[in-house]
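Q&A log
Question type: sequence-to-structure
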Amino acid sequence: MTTLIKHKRVEFSELFYDLVFVFAISKVTTLIDHLHNGILTWNSLLDFFIAVLVLTDSWMIQTVYTNRYGKNSLFNIVIMFIKMGLLLFIANMMGPDWQQYFHYLCWAIGTLTLILFFQYLVEFFRKSTDDVNRESIKGFLWITGLGSLGVYLAALLPIYVRVYILFASILLIFIMPIILLSKDKHYQVNLPHLIERLSLLVIITFGEMIMELVNFFTIENFSIYSVLYFIITLSLFLFYFGQFDHAIDEKSSQKGLFLVYSHYPIFIGLIMMTVSMSFLLNPEVNRLFVTGFYYIGFGLFQAAVLANGPYNKHYLSYSKSYYCVQATLYLAALILSLIFASNPIIVASIATILALAIATHFIYFYVTQNKKYSKSNWGLF
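Response status: OK
Response body:
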């Protein structure tokens, strides 16, 4: 089954819905912005990853629904508004002390997932829905139905088991689409719309990085770090923007599953790099930890962007040598940064050179390939 390649307009209601995630992403970031004895605890990291899954899973399932079936109807707009309220409630409970709000959190996440179930159920029984689409919808009914049941169950169980049930339910919602939809031969998406929606959420995540940058652009705090961090942010944006706005083939027949799941490490990587900016200048930080933490985030982002290379336009498919250059740049920067981890200005400088290098490498590849195949190109003006 070919992908629905006709462009579907991103509605104003979708953009308005995304505003909630501006706040939600900032709350998620706070889960890993406090150090304990110079490092982040395993509990902080686990809370962070689970929070990312909760928010991103909800956004992804809603986006796929809108992508395939959603219309800018009064019904869908009202449902979206209700979900916005629930997401604000959930985001406000995300913090180091989230377990004291455990029952409220479970009921809110369960209800959020149940609303998604209800949306798909309405679509399932709609007269205009054909049998092929009903088969695909069944998968999402299983995902959202079991997910909401598991989260509600967690709220009712004893304290020693409820956290595990909650985490298992969240992981179930994350994993089930891979199992169910990869086997569905009729599952299809409107790829241009999906790429645009994912890119908008990435832009929001970059917005959180910009908010961190603001702290370095004051009269009191402006320094060489301000310039270096700004260059890193611009370079990362160009690297992402080049891949998903220029190189990827919007007419490909991919189901969009890999595209969706590859964005999880992109979100996580960007947030990890964001908090590392302030960590690097903290005199109490463990230097090796923060350097490694930053490069894990950078590696997640870079690898996830590059992993979408096989879905590029044929003349922009990355060769093995291209991947090798990108990997060599990353490894060289990582090793040098670990060697000089005790000197934050050197680490920041190396990271800046790496970000500039991978973006420049892509731009050079893109311009060269376009010239070779006589395609439209980025102009100087």
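Response note: The chain is about 75% helix and 0% strand.
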